[in-house]
Amino acid sequence: MKTPIYVGLDVHAETIAVAVADEGRRGEVRFHGTVANTADSVLRLTKRLVAAGKEPSFCYEAGPCGYGLWS
Fold first, then answer.
1. Are 42 and 60 in contact (CB under 8 A)?
2. Residue-wise over 62-71: b if at least 16 C-beta within 10 A, else e?
3. CB-CB contact of 71 with 60 (8 Å)
4. Which of 12, 16, 19, 53 counts the most CB atoms within 10 A of its CB?
5. What's the pTM value of the predicted model, to 2 decimals?
6. Which of 55, 58, 67 is nearest to 11 (CA)?
């Protein structure tokens, strides 16, 4: 069974800052790093999390730079 992990994305024109939080009220929240603002980079991030036994749930900033990520 995969462990849930919550992934927050702060989307900018060139980069995406990534934070992750473990499940539960006391789950640790930490900065995961920065990736390029490309579909390929987000896909690689997702594959790395899944390969580590995680089941990611994503949320992102709903601003003008985040719209491309949603669509």
1. no
2. eeebbeebee
3. no
4. 16
5. 0.87
6. 67
- Measured CA to CA in angstroms, residue 30 lies from 19, 23, 38, 67 at distances of 6, 12, 22, 24
Burial of 5 (0-12, 13-18, 19+ CB in 10 A): buried
Quickly tell me which residue has 């390929």 as its tokens.
40
Q: For residue 47, is it left (φ>0), alpha (ψ between -120 and 50) or beta?
A: alpha
Taking only the tens place, the pLDDT of each residue in 3-14 is 999 999 999 999
Per residue in 12-62, pLDDT (tens digit) is 999 999 999 998 888 899 999 999 999 999 999 999 999 999 999 999 887
Measured CA to CA, the distance from residue 30 to residue 11 in angstroms comes to 17
Tokens of 33: 């790093």
